[in-house]
Amino acid sequence: MGSAVLATLAEAGARILALVLPANRVGPDVEIARAAARAAGLPTLLQPPRDRVEPFVEELRALAPDVMVIWSYSMILPKSVIDVPRRGCVNLHGGLLPDYRGPHVMQWAIINGETETGVTLHYVDAGIDTGPVIAEERFAIEPEDDALVVRGKLREAGTRLLRAWWPAIADGTAPRAPQDESRAKYYPLRTPEDGRIDWSAPAATIHNLVRALAAPWPGAFTRLGAEKLVLRRVALLAGESASARPGIVSSVDGRGARVGTGRGDLLIVNAEIGDRVAGPDELDGLGLAPGTRLGP
Asked: pTM higher than 0.85, yes or no?
């Protein structure tokens, strides 16, 4: 998302001063953003933990930015940072506000079975995703969309929003619509352990969890004996009655491994144990067989 912001602002004619990265995040996304800044000849700053933030604030003040743009950022901005740009900080939030506040709201929307989500462009204040709204763009979550597909839609919607509203943000005339606090809901940070599958849940609920945690995220998982089995793709078996108790494999064939749930059956299509990855006709190689118990 960082590289998308840099490209969009450059296309819109903004004079970009620097890229800021959060000190609490590492990995491919950070390196992609860092490489984009390097290619554009931009300096890269690192936001430190809050108790060591003052030198960083001074660096920002020395740049004298009019606006700071935030997207997919994993640290909360202290007020001293928010106050630096004279026209404010704007955030591209990966969910609809105020219904989906907090981190990982893209995943939460999929987990909750939403058929629609979107991007909200808003001003940043001292709260978490509570600032006034400039605009939003909504799009559908299709039944088989996983997190990678939805992230692509978020990126496209976010760049369109930023491109359309940048002139008004730059000259200080963008709308500032208050959020409806009666609809507000805050979703917590998710951890890898939250991907553990409860086989007593309905098949549709498990299907949503697997979609939400698709690669490159850690994945929804269960236990196969002593080993961790990560489910990368599953399918619902519409109109078919349950064939086994929750967590019990009833059959394995060329389509995949059929498993009972709390309501209906689920078909495991792709799964992995460690570095062993199996498609629908290879799952027996991971140890899946009729009568196998998965979980807890």
From this structure: yes
